[in-house]
């Protein structure tokens, strides 16, 4: 059943159609022009059933690797992160956007993009993270990128942090466990706000900020109160950093639109057993509302006390922090959406087995090759639920299908499955708009193929644009539009009316 029929499907006149990438997954050029390292530079490739690893040299000089576990890879005491000779690190090359950005942006413009979401690599601007003066070459690169977008009439939507804290800060300060990170982040944000004041209007402070706690129970965090203590404390420092950046951004340019960014998974109770229904509500609180409430409402929600108590969490929160949170609320609520998950309190039910997807298998859904439950109605549900909660302008800043693509003899790529994925998701957005949601934009994930964050693969392809490179970095890096490229072009040209 269609969510809405074509005759009534309406997107606002200035709806921002586009796509999204992240620096560490696309740029490559990991050690060029003075860039410092991030954890992604010491993270190996993996797959749906073998994890990515963070590599290090231990205190006795021996090489080792630890599971990256959703970007939180912790290494043994006394070890230091290291690039090992016989390992391959897919983020070092990405899809070499650093050297292909002109060609790539021209292709996005050909599709009619109104907005391009990308992130700034913090360690390109501040290689260690604690410097006073920025790296000019880093600033120059993003200026060239934003100017190129402007030339094509494309707005830039910039993520300030996309899982890539400078490695030096991780190693020498303990990363986000340390309150000092707030000042380093705010200095970085202030630097780029001032630098790109007239080039960028739309900003996101922390990509998928809720991942830090939402995925904890999937990585053996259950029963490990220390992981929760650290996770919630790191989040608190990030909330304060985000709030202070929002406040500063508005002082630097009152026209800035600054959003939060939540990993938006729609959770359902697996059955109507009240235990499941209540567990589902609590999953929304812990995974989704906790971060959104702080960043939109400027204070911790009442259920925070329950969450902290459950894991014996005691937070370092100052009065000034509370003031900062209240004064730095976001202008828009943005989120990624890929899937829904079923929450169950029952044992013996069939479980899903994807990376980052959890819970009972939903018999009403089909699953991607990476085990993600494909559910466009879940997107409508999420939009309506969150708009009702916050009444803020919204953007879907990631949505897409990671899939295997086949290049035909003649070089074409027939990715009908990707078109079939997007169509009902766009219909779902239209339905939510019809029901009153103030949705301003849509940036599909990986408008150009890139390295998967979860698995480090390139063959988990997301793009409308194919990049000739494999999981070991072999290939010409040549760009080729897929069938979905021409389809999305039509979608944009018709402002979402023509989805055929
Ligand atoms: P990949 C987990 C669950 C949902 C979204 O993911 C997630 C993650 C973390 O991997 O991340 C976002 O590449 C993230 C992007 C990422 C994209 O979703 O694992 O913001 O960086 O690439 C898709 O298939």
Description:
Belongs to the glycosyl hydrolase 1 family. Keywords: Glycosidase, Hydrolase. GO terms for molecular function: 6-phospho-beta-glucosidase activity. Its EC number is 3.2.1.86. This is 6-phospho-beta-glucosidase. Helix 6 packs parallel to helix 8 and helix 12 (376-390) runs parallel beside helix 13 (416-434). The protein is globular, with a radius of gyration of 21 Å. Strand 12, helix 13 and strand 13 (439-445) form a beta-alpha-beta unit. The protein has helices at 23-26, 97-110, 122-125, 136-151, 167-173, 180-195, 211-214, 225-252, 274-297, 304-310, 319-327, 376-390, 416-434, 483-493, and strands spanning 16-20, 53-57, 63-67, 80-81, 115-119, 155-159, 202-204, 257-269, 332-343, 366-367, 373-374, 394-398, 439-445, 465-467, 479-481. It is built from 14 helices and 15 strands. The strands form four sheets. Strands 1-5-6-7-8-9-12-13 form an eight-stranded parallel beta barrel, surrounded by five helices. It has a three-stranded antiparallel β-sheet with strand order 3-2-4, with no helix packed on it. With 500 residues, the protein is α/β, with parallel strands linked by helices. The protein has one domain: TIM Barrel (Alpha-Beta Barrel), CATH 3.20.20. The mean pLDDT is 95. 2-(hydroxymethyl)phenyl 6-O-phosphono-beta-D-glucopyranoside binds at residues 22, 25, 207-208, 263, 336, 338, 356, 398, 402, 445, 452-455, 460.
Defining key terms:
TIM Barrel; GH; 3-stranded antiparallel sheet; 15 strands; globular; binds 2-(hydroxymethyl)phenyl 6-O-phosphono-beta-D-glucopyranoside; alpha/beta
